[in-house]
Amino acid sequence: MNDYILQVENLKTYFKLDTGTLKAVDDVTFYLKRNETIGIIGESGCGKSVTAHSILRTVQNPGKVLGGRILYDDGSGPVDLVTCSPDSKAMRKLRGKDISMIFQEPMASLSPVYTIGAQMMEAVLVHQEKKDKKAAKELCMEMLRAVGMPDPEQKYNAYPHQMSGGQCQRAMIAIAMVNKPKILIADEPTTALDVTVQAQITDLMKHFQKEFNMSIIYITHDMGVIAEMADTIAVMYLGRVVESGSARAIFKNPIHPYTKGLLKSMPVLGNKSSERLHAIEGNVPVPLDPPDECGFCSRCQEKTAACAGSIPPLVEVEPDHLVRCFHYQGE
Ligand SMILES: Nc1ncnc2c1ncn2[C@@H]1O[C@H](COP(=O)(O)OP(=O)(O)OP(=O)(O)O)[C@@H](O)[C@H]1O
């Protein structure tokens, strides 16, 4: 069996707007191994969420996946999701069953007008040919207990507004996990929570990963969470992967000035709290008809005249460690 459950290659997702073409995801390549976690990191607007929605084929209009491949292999051979229509039976079967997604804001996926139980039952029954409601309810209760929901019987009949933020997050995870997906896409799932609940939620994901042999795409702007969760890392900037490799390689030997900037912005245990954290100056620009140059060059401390000439290629630094920077052209 192929080592990779997902291979994303040269993915392009653009939004054709009246004002021009917004290249949200532009030539993105990364690979996800079975039972492993890839961390996708970058500041707000780098294209992380649009990448996730491209995989699930749920990109909002007028966004369209316009190029590349998304090879998903559940063990029976790779299928290119780019060739599947977003509304196809194949994609509907895949979403929520093989690949599930959880969000920063549970209310983005929980309906306010249905109970948690009704939403869980819907998630189970939609993928069953013979609808067995009794078995489905048992599965839902088992999952509510597995996510550590307090008083699961009562929460099964509760509406989201009757629960705390952390409980809603657990309910969303229970819905995402109830079909034991092969891939979980977690888009900033802990950002809105306090640190104790954050740690509980990441532990929960690791527990499910082991129990169900699940792969995870963990999207965040927090290098600390990535250090805790990820086996491999893809650093995104302005719609492109600018550096990727094993977590060890990225933390020990970061090459791209953007990766180095992100690492310097991480708090270090033992440093005095009065010491200011490094911040990368400026903001991520909007990739509306972007010029053919390194996307980071407007903010890069190391830029030279060469950086504005064209888009740097992805170069292999060491096996499986790739970087997209004119200053690194290989040995
Ligand atoms: N529906 C849309 N219409 C137009 N532009 C969009 C749409 N959704 C996203 N974009 C643009 O695509 C680019 C990438 O956005 P995306 O949400 O993927 O970034 P992100 O890295 O996930 O940021 P965040 O951490 O804030 O979610 C941004 O410039 C954003 O403004």
Percentage beta strand: 15-25%
CATH topology tier name of the largest domain: Rossmann fold
Shape: globular
Structural class: alpha/beta
Tell me the distance between the termini.
Answer: 34 Å
- Which CATH-level-2 architecture of the largest domain? 3-Layer(aba) Sandwich
Number of DSSP strand runs: 12
When the domains are counted, the total is 2
Order of helices and strands: EEEHEEHEHHHHEHEHEEHHEE
Query: How big is the Rg?
Result: 21 Å
Bound molecules: adenosine-5'-triphosphate
Mean pLDDT: 92
Helix content: 25-40%
How many helices does DSSP assign?
10
Describe this structure in words.
This protein has 331 residues and is α/β, with parallel strands linked by helices. The chain folds into 2 domains: 4-98 and 181-323, Rossmann fold, CATH 3.40.50.300; 113-178, no CATH class. The protein has 10 helices and 12 strands. The strands form 2 sheets. It has an 8-stranded mixed β-sheet with strand order 6-7-8-3-9-10-12-11, sandwiched between helices. Helix 3 (116-125) packs across helix 4, helix 3 (116-125) runs parallel beside helix 6 (165-177) and helix 4 (133-146) packs across helix 6 (165-177). The longest helix is centred in the middle third of the chain and has 18 residues, at 195-212. The protein is globular, with a radius of gyration of 21 Å. It starts with a strand and ends in an 8-residue tail after the last strand. Adenosine-5'-triphosphate (ATP) binds at residues 15, 22, 24, 42, 44-50, 60, 63, 221, 286-287.
